[in-house]
What does this fold into?
Amino acid sequence: MKYLFMVTSTLLFLMTACSSEESIPDELLSEEEGEFRVIAVSEVEGKKLHKAPSFFHELNDPNVIMRNLEMITLDNAQHDPYKSLGIEEAPYFIFFDQEGIAFETNSEEEAYEFVEKALEKEID
It folds into this structure.
């Protein structure tokens, strides 16, 4: 009986993990191979953000990312098409490739490092 419970629990966990990846709306995915679509979530409530996170301005070529950057508030993250992502804190950064979430973090420093590494790969 204990074994059956463990197997059932494991299968349920795997199904949940797989379904969360499948629930990402296509409109959030990157359209171009080798590029990312970025969602940056801010704590500012009720206002549309017009200024990119500061670290994007420190990059060698911010235009590579900026054309695919969408800035939303934590309040907006609770509505479609972002609701399925389960964003519960800000700041938060999600990088999408053509298949799903490539990287996500609540740290601006980690997001900056991810972008730097992605740009280095593009240059190589």
Remarks:
- The CA atoms of residues 5 and 118 lie 42 Å apart.
- The chain has one domain: 25-123.
- The beta strands are 37-42, 69-73, 92-96, 101-105.
- The longest strand covers residues 37-42.
